[in-house]
User: Fold this.
Amino acid sequence: MMTRFRLPPASMFPLVFLALFLVFASAPARADYTTRPEVTAFIEEIAARNKLDTAPLYVALSRAIYNQRVIDLIQPPPKRGVRSWRRYRSRFLDRLHVEAGLEAWSQYEHTLAKAEKQYGVPAEIILGILGVETIYGRNTGTFETLSALTTLAFDYPPRQKLFRAELEALFLLAHEQKRDPASYTGSFAGALGWPQFLPSSVRAYAVDFDGDGKIDFDSDAADAIGSIANYLRAFGWVPGALVAERARLEPGVNPAPLLELGFEPQLTPVQVLESGVRPLSGNMPPGDATLIDLDSPGSATEYWLGYRNFYAITRYNHSNFYAMAVFQLAQALRDGHDNPDAARSYATPERKSARKSAKASKTKKAKAGKAAKSSKKAKSKAPAKSAKQRKR
Ligand SMILES: [Ca+2]
Assistant:
């Protein structure tokens, strides 16, 4: 085992020293961002725009440290895997999220009720977002926000505009909150605390919901709850209206032009029906809708109609998968809250159905009839659930 520690032959020394020199020579250049002209220009610009002193900005940015992991995480994977709604859903619709969500519901019942009353956003939707974002404060992220945002603002050109704006917002937030800009932690992309607001969203939409005189996303669930409700309301949440429901396409309908319309509901109820889309419930609610497709390899595409409130959830994260996971986790929590026995059975449907389908495919020929029966049963459950949702 001594070979591991054997010194390189003498002829290798110059190369070793060259390598070490390169490592140490490049490190300080990265370590101090304020040696870079684009960083000093940024400091002068935001100081002038916001009437801030430049000195604390220089101090803060000289302490920001390049983080390679932030760059690795922000980049899209080199081989983009096939998107799978089923796989995505199973990350959030599991026992952990449902149980933690019900626990949070009982723990923060009064705050959730107050938020629902004030902003019209149901408790389960707020909990759905908190669950998908951080499992109720358990995974708020350990990245030092100043360094993460500085890395993205100056060493990730594709998104530099967004992240320079967020870095500016972080300085303003720290100034307003009388905090050290280096005292914030969160996700690799600069999202903060329980609800994972970017600094600009904290400044625009966060509320001090427990009235203790400060906004605290690190340990104060009440501020997170009130701020999520305020955010959704600001993005058009309609109290008492539907979020989304399953739909089917009439035979021969090409969904592509409808899907191209994007996130924002633009189709009137009449246009939805004329284009050959049918809500499984049979009736179109008032208000505009958009068609949503949820693809999973090896399964038929699920179609849904998303309404204004679904759109509001996509403003939190611009993704149909995200908004649908929030909505379905919310439904599971509502079911579990209203009927604790249902919660126990709901907590593991993914595993149950996965076991069922694995079994069914193994003995596909022998039990073809039985498998068809069970999948029919699973399908017939969906409209029943959305009917329940509609009542709310
Ligand atoms: Ca507070």
